Amino acid sequence: MLNRYPLWKYLLILFVVAVGILYALPNLYPDDPAVQISGGSASTPVDSAVLNRAVKALEAANIDVKASEEQDRGLLIRVKRADQQQRARSVIKDKLGDEYVVALNLAPTTPDWLTSLGAYPMKLGLDLSGGVHFLLEVDTDRAVATRLEVYNGEIRTLLRKEKLRYRTAPNSADGKRQLMFADAAIREQAEKKIAKEFPDLLIENRDVGDKFLLVYGFNEQRIKEIEDYAVKQNLTTVRNRVNELGVSEPLVQRQGRNSIVVELPGVQDTAEAKRILGKTANLEFRLEAASDASRTSTETFGFRNNPSYTAQLERDVILTGDQVSNAQSNFDTESGQPQVSISLDSRGGQMINRATRYNVGRRMAVLYIEQKPVTRIKTEMVDGQPVKVKVQGFKEEKSIISLATIQSALGNQFRITGLDSSRESSELALLLRSGSLAAPMYFAEERTIGPSLGADNIQKGVISTIVGMAFVLLFMVIVYKVFGLFANVALVLNLVLLLAAMSMLSATLTLPGIAGIVLTLGMAVDANVLIFSRIKEEIKKGLSVQRAIHEGYDRAFVSIFDANITTLLVGIILYAVGTGPVKGFAVTLSLGIVTSMFTAIVGTRALVNLMYGGRKLDKIRI
């Protein structure tokens, strides 16, 4: 019988529609402005006591708290008003200090019964809402100082090799290194040797009483090269860390001489992102010092998990984390304790093998080096009045995470144990895998897009979609009567299914993506226009109503399929070669083509069949 679907097909359509409505529902629940708190390191405690301190600080500052909760990786405090979010972050940061990372967030309000079914709202791009913007400042002065310190060590080795006696002098006021010599003749010999081996250094002589000083530092061109390398290396590392976080459509780019802009759309755990992005961590592998070693050749460090216990290590570094090519977090099969499996590059493998081959039986330490941000209060004179300002700095902390006996010569792969938790091992593996920072960074600016620009863009996007859809719905009813109503129902279902598909795939909706939705709605109507026009033509040719409906859908299908396939190919190409806004447009366009094919052909056909199928009709309103 013409124009009749079997029961299973109707049930299948109802099932698809029901699933679409279910997974589109979370998009009706807007996010709450919130502040998220996590530890500055994996070992920093974040518990109910910290939460109570933060909430009391907000209440004292007259900031309305909507709700607070403990999460797996930190604390979340929701505020009632978006305009209080930035102030809430500042209040909590001042209260808790530098040991904690305090970040802005947009907390979801989706009911638990929906999230238990895996239904979450789709992510919104930074031009709409639900993302975070960071401006990172690279401490290029520290990069220059670190590189100069490396040169300083090599210069001392050179002078000892050439048997030119010297004494160490404090650094000059401008940060340059100084060496003291017994007379001018020895100083002149040292100057010639240093100038020959290190041509990029500026060297000058200074006489202070009976002291003959040799002062050296980098020239201006070399300083710019070091600063540029530090920013580029940090940029690469930040990009790797963003990729490890799994953020969709991120933006990581350089800004100015020493700044990096990071935009993370759809990020929920902003405190974790902030902690990982700004983390400056590295490793050093050193041998434990012999009992008769001189104090000048050793350093004493505490253990990371128990600072009261210390060990003396040699100053010479065998290897650093820069030679790590891969790192994975896992568990020791024997003890069940967390560990990090490390793979070294070829140079690193040679270095560790050479050092361990001749030191079997001795103990080797893994030293964890971390640059922690420190906020200091500095008094400056402004218009003759003392004003207190916050100055961002860093303090370096070194601690031993592993001290084990060398059983045999090590190769390119080995393990690091002695970690407190699986979270700490995962974090260390991520930092080593993504690369170390060439210089410390601090967050100069942090903001979420949502309360102002995002809300305005969302409102304009929704209005444009509603207005465009209203015109289409009105046109279809006027021109195609009852069949136009069928097309309108399918059009609404198409929008619901498109939103559901984007939510299920965790796609990011941007402003260009909204343009893709509007275009998709127009294309879905095009398919119905082709079908209904074909039905009209078949009726004019003298076919019966039932035959005309059947032929209209069958013969228009080929044209609709060809047109949509070519458009889908274009959408795939745009997604493959495009970036940012172009990808957002391509995603909604491609998904919209798939959903419109279902609703415009299968959906309207089901409604037509239910209305007219199996009935003897002389005419229809089309």
Structural class: alpha+beta
Spans where pLDDT lies below 50 across 5 or more residues: none
* Tally of DSSP helical segments: 14
Please describe the biggest sheet, giving its number of strands, its sense, and whether it closes into a barrel: 4 strands, antiparallel
The H-level CATH homologous superfamily of the largest domain, spelled out, is Multidrug efflux transporter AcrB transmembrane domain
Which topology of the largest domain does CATH recognise?
Answer: Multidrug efflux transporter AcrB transmembrane fold
Based on DSSP secondary structure assignment, what is the total number of beta strands? Answer: 23
The 3D shape can be described as elongated
Strand order of the largest sheet: 2-3-1-4
Note the beta-strand portion.
Answer: 25-35%
How does this model look, in words?
- The protein is an alpha+beta fold and 622 residues long.
- The protein has helices at residues 7-24, 48-60, 85-96, 112-115, 140-161, 184-197, 220-245, 270-277, 346-357, 422-434, 453-504, 511-540, 545-577, 581-612; strands at residues 32-39, 65-71, 74-79, 100-107, 123-124, 131-138, 167-169, 177-181, 201-208, 211-218, 251-255, 259-264, 280-287, 298-302, 310-314, 319-320, 324-331, 338-344, 363-382, 385-405, 413-416, 441-449, 508-509.
- It folds into four domains: 7-26 and 452-612, Multidrug efflux transporter AcrB transmembrane domain (Multidrug efflux transporter AcrB transmembrane fold), CATH 1.20.1640.10; 32-107, 2-Layer Sandwich (Alpha-Beta Plaits), CATH 3.30.70.260; 141-223, Ribosomal Protein S8, Chain: A, domain 1; 282-418, Gyrase A, domain 2, CATH 3.30.1360.
- It is built from 14 helices and 23 strands.
- Strand 11 (251-255) and strand 12 (259-264) form a beta hairpin.
- Helix 7 (220-245) crosses helix 10 (422-434) and helix 11 (453-504) crosses helix 12 (511-540).
